[in-house]
Amino acid sequence: METLRRCTMVTACLAFVFVVPALAATARTTRHPTGARVTMATARRTALGRVPGGMVKSSELEHEQGRLVYSFDIAVKGQPGVQEVLVDAMTDSVLSVTHESAKAERAEAKRERMKHGTPAKDRDSLRTSSH
Question: What is the pLDDT of residue 35?
């Protein structure tokens, strides 16, 4: 009886030592269909935390600076242009916060259209906007 109890305890300990870390590793590496580990909602909260009083004007998941990132254009009432916040889609860390004037924002949109060869009506379906 004592031997059976010890075997059960040893088996339980071994399962804990080997199975639980394997399951935890699987959970950490789970990715969304887009390849991102971080959801857009989580990245959005992170971005808004860097621009107090801001409202997300548009957002997208893209490859930039050699990484998969969420890009958020955040407008602040009473301030011209937008703050562009890049959030790493794998780590949820903020990569950059830059101010874009309205003119710079239009120029960037034009460069993106030229780069991807996407007509304006199709490009708009790739981005999300909230006003």
Answer: 86
- Each residue of 81-100: b (16+ CB within 10 Å) or e? ebbbbbbbbeebebeeeeeb
- Average pLDDT score over the chain: 77
- Listed in sequence order, the residues at least 6 apart from 98 whose beta carbon sits closer than 8 Å to its beta carbon are 83, 84
Average confidence (pLDDT) over 30-44? 84
Q: Where are the domains of the chain?
A: 1-30, 40-129
pLDDT of 19 strictly over 60: no
Interior angle at CA 75, CA 52 and CA 110, nearest 5: 140
Indicate the pLDDT class of residue 122, thresholds 50, 70 and 90.
very low
What three-state secondary structure class fits 75? strand
In whole angstroms, give the CA distance from residue 47 to residue 93: 9
Dihedral sign for Cα atoms in the order 73, 75, 76, 79: positive
CATH topology of domain 40-129: SHC Adaptor Protein (3.30.505)
- CA 131 to mean position of chain CA atoms: 20
